[in-house]
Amino acid sequence: MKYFFLSVLALLIIGCTQELGFQPVIPTIIAKGNLIGNGTDKIGHQSLVINNTADWNQLLVNMDSVNRRRMVLLENRIDFNEYTVLAIFDTVWMSNAGSSISVSIVENSKNVYVETVYDSADTRALMAIQYRPYLIVKIPKTTKSIWFDTQR
Q1: For the segment 29-85, what is each residue's pLDDT rounded down to a tens digit?
Q2: Cα–Cα distance for residue pair 21/39, rounded to 1 Å
Q3: pTM above 0.90, yes or no
C-alpha cells in the first residue's frame, strides 16, 4: 500500500510540476538494497553525483570492501558520455527489517531536483545486524546542478 501511495504522490508531483516549467526525469535503477556492516565501507550517509568511470569504480570498490559479492548491479558498465549516476546512501541501521530508498526526479532549464524518500525500518525489534540502505540510478547526462531533498 505504501508503494501505491508513493506512486500516486509521484504522479501528482510530476503533473503539478509540469505546469511550473518542470519536466520529469525517469531514472533507471542500477542497484538497490542494503549494505551489511557497521559503516566501515567508507561511504557514509550521502548522495553522490558520479560523472566518470574512475569515481564509479571507486564507489564499487568501497561498496564491495565489506559486502563482497552481496550487491547486485543491474548494469556493470556505464557510458558516462550518455548518463549521470546518482548514488544515495542512508545512515547505518540496526534492525531485523530492511529499509529502502526511492526517488522522484524533475528538472527545469537550470537544475535537476531529486526528491529522496527514505522508508525506514521498524527499529523496535533490534538485532545485531547493521545495514545501510542504498539506491543507485542513472539519468540522461546532464551538466545542470543537481539538488537533493530528503523526506523521512
Answers
A1: 999 888 876 666 677 788 999 999 999 999 888 888 776 656 678 888 899 999 999
A2: 40
A3: no
Q: What are phi and psi of 63, to 5 degrees?
A: -65, -35
Cα R_g (the chain), whole angstroms: 16
Q: Are 106 and 13 in contact (CB under 8 A)?
A: yes
CA dist., res. 68 & res. 46, Å (int): 21
Cell of 56: 564509479
Which cell numbers hold the place of 37? 556492516
Angstrom distance (rounded) from CA 149 to CA 112: 11
Q: Choose among 43, 22, 42: nearest CA to 115.
A: 22
Nearest to 121 by CA among 91, 148, 150, 149: 91
